[in-house]
C-alpha cells in the first residue's frame, strides 16, 4: 500500500536514527505486519501490544 510506504519512509527519514534501540526494534517489527493490520494500528483502530510500538506509532502519526 503506497500510503503506508510514505508514512513509514517519513518516519525513517525524520525519526529513526534518533530513536531508542527498543523503538527501532518496534519499528522493524511493524514492517512484518500485514498491510490491513498495520493500517488499523496507524489509524488507531487497533491497540499496540507494547509501549515501544505505541511510541513508534505516535511518532509516525505526528505531523512534521
SS summary, helix count: 4
Q: Strand pairing plus helix content: what structural class? A: mainly alpha
| Total beta-strand segments | 0
Q: Report strand %.
A: under 5%
Q: Tell me the span between the first and last alpha carbons.
A: 21 Å
Which percent bin holds the helix content? 55-70%
Q: Can you characterise this structure?
A:
This protein has helices at 2-14, 21-30, 35-42, 51-61. Helix 2 packs across helix 4 (51-61). It contains 4 helices and no strands. It is mostly helical and 64 residues long.
What is this structure, in a nutshell?
The chain has four helices and no strands. The protein has 64 residues and is an all-alpha fold.
Please name the defining characteristics of this protein.
64 residues; 0% strand; globular; mainly alpha; single chain
